[in-house]
Specification:
- There is one protein chain.
- With about 220 residues, this protein is mostly helical.
- The chain is about 85% helix and about 0% strand.
- It has 10 helices and no strands.
- α3 runs antiparallel to α9, α5 runs antiparallel to α8 and α8 packs parallel to α10.
- The radius of gyration is 36 Å and the shape is flat.
- The N and C termini lie far apart (about 145 Å).
């Protein structure tokens, strides 16, 4: 019995050690992630660090405060030009001020800054979301749910509306047309203001032809 027990013990101890070592090696293999996953973890760590740093810098100036200030000051900046074109359209001072490119430089720079702040990786996808790369209303609605995007769009409208109003104003000065109603409409309803100016030009041209026929 003693000899059989001595012979029996080595036979049991060897497979047990092998099993334990096999389990340890398999456990190590399962605990070590593959190389693509390790690269993903490193990239995720860097991305989180960048986002935290961006969040810290963004917290210094809240986006809602920037958007609100840009909205208010952009609106206030264009009002003097409309006031002069409506209140004193024949004044030389109005003509000189209206010919300046300064408001468009300022509004353009402000718009570019707001566009930079509102831009996200999904912006292009939201604008050109269809398979034909055409804008779709749901994507545009989602994009304009941000205050910063709304503020940039408002500055965009102010610049374009003022440019159209100035064009209407100078055509009126050159051709002797009444433009105060058209310029006023361009402030908030620019397409209607342009339409009103076209109608005014057509009526004035027809009246001029009628008067020239009468004089003949």
């Amino acid at each position: 019995m003693a000899m059989s027990s001595c012979l029996f013990r080595p036979q049991l101890s060897t497979p047990i050690k092998l099993r334990v070592s096999d389990r340890k090696s398999s456990l190590r293999r399962t605990m070590v992630p593959p190389e693509p996953y390790r690269r993903f973890l490193r990239h995720s760590t860097i991305s989180v660090a960048i986002r935290r740093d961006s969040a810290i810098h963004a917290s210094w100036l809240p986006s809602s405060q920037i958007a609100g200030s840009a909205f208010t000051w952009g609106t206030v900046a264009v009002l003097p030009f409309y006031t002069l074109m409506v209140a004193a359209p024949r004044s030389e001072f109005t003509k000189k001020v209206s010919a300046s490119s300064a408001p468009f430089v300022i509004l353009g720079a402000l718009y570019g800054y707001l566009l930079y702040l509102s831009w996200t990786p999904d912006t292009v996808h939201l604008i050109f979301g269809s398979k034909y790369w055409l804008p779709e209303l749901p994507g545009i609605a989602t994009m304009f749910s941000s205050e910063m995007t709304l503020a940039s769009a408002w500055i965009h409208l102010l610049a374009v509306d003022l440019f159209a109003a100035r064009k209407v104003y100078f055509e009126g000065v050159e051709e002797g047309l009444e433009t105060r109603h058209s310029v006023t409409l361009c402030l908030m309803f620019c397409p209607i203001g342009i339409l009103a100016h076209i109608i005014t030009k057509a009526v004035a041209a027809k009246r001029g032809k009628t008067e020239s026929g009468i004089h003949r």
